[in-house]
Structure prediction request, 204 residues.
Amino acid sequence: MPNIAFKRVDSSPDSRFYEEPRFVAHINDAAIAAVTDLYRAYLPPGGVILDLMSSWISHLPPEVAYGAVAGLGMNAAELAENPRLETYVVHDLNETPEVPFADATFDAAMICVSVQYLTQPIAVMRDLARVTRPAAPLVITFSNRCFPTKAVALWHALGDDGHAGLVASYLRESRGWVDIEILDRTPRGGDVLRAVVAKRAPLV
Prediction:
């Protein structure tokens, strides 16, 4: 994909944009419930989970116990307030697209309403495959809401179906993921909610 596709209106460092915490929900309650239902269906109970591009809430089902949940995000205060995170790291994936964890650490991973901000998404998805175990599920959810100055140009150029196809293409081109599915989980009366789910490719 051409570099211009990942240009943004605000090209200043993301660390500056996310310096102040934002303790807000980025989708409404009905859409949040739909995200939680996806996690309930796909994330393994007892597993070690990575919440990539995390913040102060992870939307995980409250009744499910996981072995551990790690978060990677941009604001330390938000991450510190997240009750589901056992550990977290502040890390800018647009500056350094490597995920700072050891190989095959996680049994599953998730990205909630943040994929539109990645300027090197294929590199991120490739490295995300490195830190997950074979057959680990990945759940990526997104809406049509965003911080417009930080979403990449290609995201703005596409509609809801295009967003889903774009995210699926990131996974295909990274060559780390298989069984890629596109889901429309928009709830009645809720924000648009699409998901792309996949499994970590087997080792070769």
Remarks:
- The domain at 3-23+46-200 is CATH 3.40.50.150 (Rossmann fold).
